[in-house]
Design brief:
This is DUF4394 domain-containing protein. A 4-stranded antiparallel β-sheet has the order 2-1-7-8, with no helix packed on it. Strands 3-4-11 form a 3-stranded antiparallel β-sheet, with helices on one face. Strands 5-10 form a two-stranded antiparallel ribbon. It is globular, with a radius of gyration of 15 Å. By secondary structure, the protein is of the alpha+beta class. The protein has one helix at 6-21, and strands at 28-32, 49-54, 60-63, 68-70, 76-77, 82-83, 86-90, 96-101, 112-113, 118-119, 124-126.
């Protein structure tokens, strides 16, 4: 398998942030309490959604030497109590574009979300995959 250079990987992530911003709406990150689907093409079970966070436009905050930072999300209220196990990023067109595992890809202060509690993400960092390190 071939891997990009760091510079190329950062350029791809910057382009990815532009794809996040596509559409008339803002991108959203939805947290779920069930098992993460094996494919991004598998529809998420909306009855397992816990909270929906919204990203501002533009979503790209800054490019670093080894990563990009996205803007912080808004603060949203948890609509259903549960243990957040995974999250799906949707672009402004509502298209599913990336899934994350809570605990390894996304770290929350508390994965057990209480109904009515306020949640936001203040730091969103994406790093390019450059092969096994």
């Amino acid at each position: 398998m071939n891997y990009p250079s760091l510079g190329a990987g950062l350029a791809m992530l910057a382009a990815f942030s532009a794809y996040i911003d596509q559409g008339s709406a803002n991108a959203t990150l939805v947290f779920y309490s069930d098992s993460k689907p094996s494919s991004i093409d598998t529809a998420a079970d909306s009855s397992k959604a816990l909270v929906t966070l919204t990203l501002p436009k533009p979503s790209l905050k800054q490019t670093n030497t080894d990563s990009i930072n996205l803007q912080p999300t808004d603060t949203a209220l948890v609509t259903t109590a549960g243990l957040a196990t995974w999250a799906r990023l949707y672009n402004g067109n509502g298209l599913a574009i990336m899934d994350f595992t809570v605990g390894s890809d996304i770290t929350l202060l508390n994965n057990n979300l209480a109904e009515g509690s306020a949640v936001n993400l203040t730091s969103l960092k994406l790093k390019p995959y450059l092969g096994a390190e």
